[in-house]
Amino acid sequence: MLKNKLTSLAKPLAVMMLGANLSLAATAPTQPPVTTAARLQTAPNLDGDVLGDSAWSGLTPATGFWQTKPDEGRPATQKTEVFIGFTDDTLYFGIVCHDDDPDAIIISDSRRDSSLRDTDSFQVVLDSFKDRQNGFVFGTNPAGIEYDGQIVAEGSGGRSTSGGGFNLNWDTTWTVRAQVSDFGWSAEMAIPFKSLRYGSESVQSWGINFQRNIRRNNEVAFWSPLPRQYSISRISQAGTIEGLATPSQRNLKLTPYALAQRTTGGPSDDNHTKEEVGFDIKYSITPGLTLDATYNTDFAQVEADELQVNLDRFSLFLREKRPFFLENAGQFTVGNPREIELFFSRRIGIGSGGEQTPIDGGLRLSGKLGDRTNVGLLQMRSEAIDGVAPRNDYTVARVNQELANRSSIGFLVVNRDGDGSHLVANDDDHNTTYAFDGRWGIGETGTISGFVAKTDTPNLSGDDHAFNLEGRYRSERWNNSLAYTEVAENFNPEVGFLSRQAYRKISARVFRRIRPDNLLGLHEIRPHISYTSHWRYDDGFHESMLVHVDSHWEWETGFEVHTGVNFTHEGITDPFEIAEGVTVQPGKYDHEELQLVARTDQSAPLSFELQTRIGGRFGGDRITLEPEVKYRIGEKFTSELTWSYNHFELPGGDFTVNVGKLRATYSFTPSISIQALVQYDDRSDVVATNLRFAWLQSASAGLYLVYNEIDDRDAIGKPQREFILKYSRIFDLL
Q: Is the pLDDT assigned to residue 654 strictly greater than 90?
């Protein structure tokens, strides 16, 4: 009997040891994997139960995921299966995320488009034109949230621009359901073909990749393996899905809205009510080309801008949040994010002081001609406001031709025509920007990119150009770059963004990634040094310099510390008021400062981050402390409290500036939520409150109830209050 028991125990142990040995011996494939989509006999019952749904029976799943983090190149610690099927009108994914400890699954949020980084999650990227540069991302977590976005040029513009690079604000119509079970968790996605763009062939092959996060392990794994320096945006190394029988595109969507708004208080104590109606139309002219039209466009449901305090002499950047401008925004993006953006959609309908200008309507044609030619045409009209802005017509034209190996070349034209009713003569109220840009891939690790631009402005001639040239080397261990930028004195992109005027700039960075085998639980060390200098365009005066020497220390637990020192130079030729009663005088100021960042595990229910800068500034001393506390209860309630404390002791006087922000959200379901955003700025003594209840029907359409209050304690009169009720609905007409 004892022998039999030992034999019965030895068998599973041998299997476990064999599996372990195979796992250790396994190596990632050298070629991107290929899978096949199957036509489904019946559509799945969309409830998240993949294993119990007969619609998936008989399909062979895509499996075999490989870690990028923490152990690059090793098999994922948990098995993932992805079933792929389609019907005449819908693409389906059945995802089974096996987990040997389901109780340890982390679900940190259930809001639409909330981050998938700090939760167990799954994402799929679809390169529907197989151009190896652009794609759509769909993701979810065990709570069944809808997460979608657009990738342009492999995300080369980052997430900080008006929609270029990775555009999380792109929303489309699709459905997902998920559930947690004793085997782990599973999800079912239904993506209508009409929500995608693709070629005209009846049977197609697309680029595809899957990403799974197992958050308690800080694990990131991909189906088509990726080196550590890349994310799911690395479409050129995605796998392939074959056998997709796609329908011809027939897509006509109408999204009407109705709005009622009541405004009270404010400096003029003006009480008024308005009612508005308008609509958006979306029509697919070809499978890859979409026409959008909007009439009496309103963005009342959009979250309020975050308060910022300018403690320098250059322009602040506020990102675009309005849905109409964000869809396909990457098609129109040329320039350097937050520094030079040749088309900046916030110039349409939003004044320099943040006041809104009514938008009569507009048209946008965007998408692909053929497989590799991207086009974008935009025409908008905004109404005049006496003493603030003229009526303006805006025209943007963009063509971008994709080439082999992540390369492309394109041009952009941006034009504003005003009616001459504000500040200028009738025949001189216009501005045009012209630009050519390109990106050249060198092997798998190198790129050279740049642009050259010129503006046409009445009464400004000569010295009206700008250009940028950057080389970048990005490998598993190194991320290095060298760039030169020049902005001439009369360069004036009125429908763009410039952080500063008339300069020449050199920037360089050397960045190293080190993953020690066994050193105090460290996952990665990232030492780096960067250099940036600006010289005035006309006379070469050295305006500013920053040398940043730093190292990021990231532990396997998710704890992270950045230890840096900055060497700065500021050249001031004209005095400027940095705070009320405190003026920075002309001079040359050279300083050093200590920069420290500490961050705990952001997936924990309670997490903390502190950023500090302590050192010299403008001939005196500065202390900046920016703590952030995040607290959540399950996936339903999330909150975030941030504070920015800035204390200056300068030759012209001492002052302190505080800016605080509290954001709290409760999600009843992934489509029903209430959010509060309260902000405080003690320099202007303003408290701004934004309360928003949202009940989404699909994408960003649904019912919104919004309350805004701005309490300017230095102003005479009552706080300004707005009550807004808005309802919109998407109708599929074809």
A: yes
DSSP 370-399: TTTEEEEEEEEEE--BTTTB--EEEEEEEE
248-252, 271-275, 299-303: which has the highest mean pLDDT? 271-275
Q: How far apart are CA 318 and CA 308, in angstroms?
A: 9
CATH architecture of the domain with range 28-245 = Sandwich (2.60)
The string of DSSP letters for 13-41 reads HHHHHHHHHHHHH----SS--EEE-EE-S
What is the distance between the alpha carbons of residues 513 and 526, in angstroms, rounded to a whole number?
Answer: 5
With contact defined as beta carbons under 8 Å apart, do 70 and 217 qualify? yes
Give the DSSP H or E segment for 693. Answer: strand 686-698
Residue 56's SS3 state is helix
Q: In the structure encoding, which two tokens stand for residue 425, read together?
A: 């003569």
Of 333, 328, 255, whose CA–CA distance to 298 is shortest? 255
Print the SS3 string covering 602-639. CCCCEEEEEEEEEEEECCEEEEEEEEEEEEEECCCEEE
User: Is the backbone peptide bond immediately before 70 cis, with ω within 30 degrees of 0?
Assistant: yes
3-state secondary structure of 665: strand
Burial class (CB in 10 A: 0-12, 13-18, 19+), 318: middle
Provide φ and ψ at 154, rounded to 5°.
55, 30
Confidence tier at 325 by pLDDT (50, 70, 90)? confident
CA atoms 137, 451, 318, 551: torsion sign: positive
Q: What is the pLDDT of residues 54-72, one digit of tens each?
A: 999 989 999 999 999 999 9
What the block records as the tokens of 168 is 């999380």
| Res 517: pLDDT | 87
CA distances from 146 to 113, 151, 166, 241, 683 (A): 6, 17, 16, 22, 39
Which tokens in the block code for residue 353?
């002081």
Q: Which two tokens stand for residue 105?
A: 């699954």
DSSP 457-491: BTTB-SS-EEEEEEEEEE-SSBEEEEEEEEE-TT-
Alpha helix positions (H), 206-343? 323-326
Tokens of 495: 């429908």
Element (H, E) at 8: helix 2-25
Given this model, what pLDDT does residue 684 score?
Answer: 83
SS3 of 521, please?
A: coil
- 112-123, pLDDT tens digit by residue? 889 999 999 999
Highest mean pLDDT range out of 247-251, 269-273, 311-315, 507-511? 507-511
- The tokens describing 563, both together, are 């230890």
Q: 672-728: per-residue pLDDT in tens?
A: 999 999 999 988 888 999 999 999 988 888 999 999 999 887 676 788 899 999 999
Q: How many whole angstroms separate alpha carbon 391 and alpha carbon 375? A: 27
**What is residue 352's predicted lDDT score, i.e. its pLDDT?**
64
Cα 11 vs. chain centroid, distance in angstroms?
50
Write down the residue that tokens 């697919």 correspond to: 284
Longest pairwise C-alpha distance within the chain: 103
Alpha-carbon span 35 to 199, nearest angstrom: 19
Residue 405, token pair as written in the block: 């190996």
Written as one letter, the residue type at 180 is V
Residue type at 593 in one-letter notation: E
d(CA 616, CA 591): 5
pTM (2 d.p.): 0.85
Token duo for residue 212: 């799974």
Supply φ then ψ for residue 664, to 5 degrees.
-135, 140
